[in-house]
Amino acid sequence: MATSSSYDFSLTGGGIVLECLELLGKAGVGNPVSAEDQATCLRTLNMMTRALQAKGIGLWKNVEATLFQTYEAYSYDIGPTGDYCTNLGYKTEIATAADSGDSTITVDSDDNFTDGDVAGIELDDGTIQWTTVDGTPAADVVTLDDALTDDVAVDNHVYNYTSKLQRPMEIVEARLVQTSGYEKPLRIISRDEYMRLSSKDSTGTANQIYYDPLLTNGKMWVWQACGDVKEYIKFTCRIPIEDFDAAANDPDFPQEWLLALSYGLAVLVAPKFGVKLDQTFLALAVSLMESAEDFDVENTSVYITMG
Questions:
Q1: pLDDT tens digits, one per residue of 78-132
Q2: Could you give the CA distance from residue 244 to residue 13 in angstroms, rounded to a whole number?
Q3: Is residue 126 a contact partner of residue 72, using CB atoms and an 8 Å limit?
Q4: 284 vs 302: CA distance, rounded Å
Q5: What 8-state DSSP symbol labels residue 98?
C-alpha cells in the first residue's frame, strides 16, 4: 500500500465556507458560492473564532516572549505599538568599548542582527539607548542609525529584535533573566494584589507582575521597578487568533479544527439561508466542537496533596 507521505492538508477560509454551505445544501456542483454568501459567512466565521478565543482555546497560540526593561520603569505597554517587547529577541554583549558619539559597536556575535532591526545598547549610565541597525553587520561590527549618547563598556548588554509582539490575551507564566543568566520565576498577581503594593516605583529586582490585556496594547506592571537593565523578562503568553481577511487566507488553526469550524459555521449561518437544522446535525456540531476543544489541552501531571 502506497500512502501519500503528506501531512499538510488544510482548507482556506473560503474552503471552510464552501464545506459549510455544502452541508446546508446551499452549494455544490453547478451551484458555486456567490460573493455575497462568501462575505457573510466569512464575517460570521471571524466572529465565531473570536467567541472561541473568549472561551480560552488556542494552546497553539502560546508563544515565548521577551520584555526588555527600562531603568526605573514599572509599567510597560505590550503590543504592536507598545514598548520593547518581542516574541523573538536576542542578547549579546559589547566586545570592544565604544565612546559617546560613535555610530558603530563591536559585539561578541552579530549572528542574529539584520538590517533594520531595533537595537538596544546598555550605556555606562545604566540606561538603554534604543536605535535601529543600519545595514547588514559584518565581522561583529554593527552600524547604528543614531550615534551613542554615552560611553559603552566591554560586556555591556546589547539587545535586538525585528518586530514587536502582538497584544497578549493572557500571560501564562513569567521569568526574570538575571545578570548571571539564571532565570527566576515571577509570580503573576491580580489587579487587587498589585494595587495594594504601597510603593509601586521602588527599584530593585522584579519578583511579580500584573497584566491587563486591554485593547491595542496590553499593560504589564512589574514590581519591583527595574534597577538593572541587564535583567529582562521572559514569559509565555497567548496571542490572538488571526483574522480571515479574505477567502484565500489559511486558518490560524490546527488541522484538527477544520471539521468543527465547518459544522460550527453551518449552525450559525443556517438562519441566514432559511435552513432549519435537525437535532442530529446540531448534536454532531456540538460533539465535533467538544472534541476539538478537548484536543486543545496541555498534557501535564496533576498532583493531589492529602491531608
A1: 999 999 999 999 999 999 999 999 999 999 999 999 999 999 999 999 999 999 9
A2: 6
A3: no
A4: 31
A5: B
Cell for 157?
Answer: 548588554
* Domain boundaries, given as residue ranges, for the chain: 13-58+253-295, 64-85+166-240, 89-162
pTM: 0.91
Name residue 218's beta-bridge partners: 78
CB atoms within 10 A of CB 49: 25
- Residue written as cell 494552546? 59
Which helix (H) or strand (E) segment holds residue 4: the answer is none
Task: Give the Cα-Cα-Cα angle 131, 137, 140 (nearest 5 degrees).
Answer: 105
Give the span between the Cα atoms of 288 and 285, in whole angstroms: 5
Q: DSSP assignment of 49-75, as one string?
A: HHHHHHTT--GGGEEEEEEE--TT--E
Smallest Cα–Cα separation from 77: which of 242, 221, 197, 238?
221
The fold for domain 89-162 equals: Thrombin, subunit H (2.40.10)
Please report the pLDDT score of residue 245 as a whole number. 97
